[in-house]
What we know:
Blueprint (H helix, E strand, L loop, with lengths): L25 H10 L14 E2 L11 H7 L10 H13 L4 E5 L2 H12 L5 E4 L4 H9 L3 E4 L20 H11 L6 E5 L12 H14 L2 E5 L3 H11 L8 H10 L3 E5 L10 E5 L2 H14 L10 H14 L2 H20 L12 E5 H4 L9 H13 L1 E2 L1 E3 L1 H4 L15 E5 L7 H16 L7 E5 L10 E4 L1
Parallel strand pairs: 1-10, 3-4, 5-6, 6-7
Antiparallel strand pairs: 2-8, 7-8, 9-12, 11-12, 13-14
Helix pairs in contact: 1-14, 2-11, 3-11, 4-5, 4-10, 6-7, 8-9, 12-16, 14-16
Amino acid sequence: MDKTNRRSWAEPFKIKMVEPLRIISREERERALAGAGYNTFLLRSEDVYLDLLTDSGTNAMSDRQWAGLMMGDEAYAGSRNFYHLEAKVRQHYGYKHLVPTHQGRGAEHLISRVLIKPGDVIPGNMYFTTTRLHQELAGGTFVDVIIDEAHDTESTHPFKGDVDLKKLAAVIEKHGAAKIPYISVAATVNMAGGQPISLGNLRGVRDLARKYGIKVVLDATRAMENAFFIKRSEKGNEGKTLADILLEMCSLTDACTMSAKKDLLVNIGGFLAMNDDALFEEARNLVVVYEGLHTYGGLAGRDMEAMAIGIEEALDLDYMKSRIGQVEYVGNGLIEAGIPIVRPVGGHAIFLDARKFLQHLPQDQFPAQRLAAELYLESGIRSMERGIVSAGRDKATGKHNCPKLELVRLTFPRRVYTQAHCDVLVESVIEVFRRREKIRGLKMVYEPKYLRFFQARFEPL
Length: 461
């Protein structure tokens, strides 16, 4: 939010239905955390006060979306809700073909199976956990080509999601275009702190890709939030609508994967969209094997209807200002208190810099995992680790991947919490920071084979 104008702001909606919250005692939280192996993913939601684990599927739907649920056409084939969704995707994302999926990783699976062959290399602007895993399961290797500023939590570069075009060109020259099925571009970049990519940089990626005949695939999960940052910070885009910018972003790519559980304000759903007829034919065939018929892709008709309505609602500028403004309100409060966070404040979350927060803990004692656990103990707030645990292991050496960013993500569900909840959050983080030197590290006592951050268990050292 603009701190030069301190007039009060309010959410652009009113509350029609409430869900009671409760906070259990400190002793109960201690038992719950130990039972969850110090992994916030394994906590029961009934033991959580403010749930900032993720913004995926945790949104509050509008009255229009709830009404849309009652209009679900649950025909097995050719549901009218599919055609409504298809029309909205064509209108606002611009892609010719639509393949619905149960959520974003269904789309990631399909695009990886169709395009990647063993030995391929996929460059992108920082990895995302499920995206990289699907690429690896298909035999590919992800290579990070994001700008260096993205790895610096104190850099205030307005577009830390930008691709370093020199790095990208070097990867192409090293491996050859035939080994690169597509360039993976996220907007915004989750693991960098919800940081946006600029329209100018995306255009540069497209131009380089065209030179070598390589496809560009957009992770459009939070592309509408990315469009807001472009409108606000990239010269020449101030007068454009969010819809204009979104359409322009997508026009610079060949396909997109989408988790509708974020931008589109729903609780389940996703899609794969593309322009290429042959790619669509393969994806349409595979979706029948793994998700469902190509006109429902693992979704109920009512869910597709809610997605179609959500596309229109999420492109409303007043809504988006409040969405980003709530995150910035918390970020500014933490910065004023001297709390180390990723700067500038990103789109969907505040990312605490656990390296600087818990300077006395080495990375192999999982400082971000421990900080997330400590915040829950303090006030019942659930956050999540985005550091060495999420980074997994090197598939060649078996050693921990040690990312430069060791973060705790405080993720904001859309239209769920109020400014008073935000104040509680800021106060809780400040209290943990005050006693940070007493916090001990963790050891991992159980590690699953894939995506270990979801189910790994820990014990205090």
